[in-house]
Amino acid sequence: MAYIEELFGLKGKKGFVTGGAQGIGKVVATGMARCGMDVAIVDVNKEKAEEAAHQIEALGVRSMALVCDVTSAEAVDATVDTIATGFGGLDFAFNNAGIANNTPTEDIDLKDWQKVIDVNLIGVFLTARAAGRKMIASGGGSIINTASMSGHIVNRPQPQSAYNASKAGVIQLTKSMAIEWAPHKVRVNCISPGYIRTEMTVHVRQDWQDSWMRQSVLPSMGTPEDLVAGVLYLASDAAAFTTGSDLVMDGGFTVV
Ligand code: NDP
Prior knowledge:
It is a single chain. The protein has helices at residues 3-8, 23-34, 46-57, 73-87, 110-138, 161-181, 199-202, 206-215, 225-235, and strands at 14-18, 38-43, 63-67, 92-95, 141-146, 186-193, 246-249. By secondary structure, the protein is an alpha/beta fold. It has a single domain, classed as NAD(P)-binding Rossmann-like Domain (Rossmann fold), CATH 3.40.50.720. The protein has a 7-stranded parallel β-sheet, sandwiched between helices. Helix 2 (23-34) links the parallel strand 1 (14-18) and strand 2. The mean pLDDT is 98. The structure holds NADPH dihydro-nicotinamide-adenine-dinucleotide phosphate.
């Protein structure tokens, strides 16, 4: 076995990716499959989730598509049960589903503000809780949550107070779970991407995108592919001593 494979020990690990039907989730799930990991796709978009699961199976690993709204505790618990039973265990969870809203704070309705918190923060709590319960029972695992550089800084010029608050919450939730579950050998980390070219960002007003590039250290947006190795690292045995950390992958955006 190549040293790198031995070091990372990814082959045969079993888990799921939420928001895995497209964007960051789909690309990371594909990277996992290419390392020999069994990956279930959890998403609200049935058609795209099934397409992603088929593409992953074609890489020679097991997959399944599960339609699940991460804001529903019952749906999340049932989904994680199905995955753990179907795969015969649960080693990792990439809690990545998220939405954005750019309505100014003085104009946004409570229900729209709350929706962002529900998906981005409560959704991470529910999927991490369901995965954590399985991992505690089975002797360990690795949970990776998608936060954002928006959990560290306030983006400009677009308004997004709910999004920023939700992502700051994900970082602190990650650290809290890491401390609680360390005795059970369940590691909990998060990633904080900068601007990444996906459906979430491509339709954003061009003048806002131009502003991002003027503020950016590297002269372009990142791609989902730029995040794959970071998530694989946190899921892997190579990160056995890493918990409660936030891996910032933002092209240096938050440094200045
Ligand atoms: P996308 O919008 O491309 O993909 C998100 C996926 O999550 C979609 O398939 C979406 O389905 C699904 N989803 C939305 N709501 C739910 C829900 N309630 N339950 C289950 N699935 C849901 O986004 P990205 O890939 O860009 O983002 C992935 C994560 O990365 C998010 O948490 C985001 O906040 C974060 N992030 C993204 C950055 C970027 O610049 N793109 C930067 C930093 C962080 P549907 O489309 O049908 O709603």
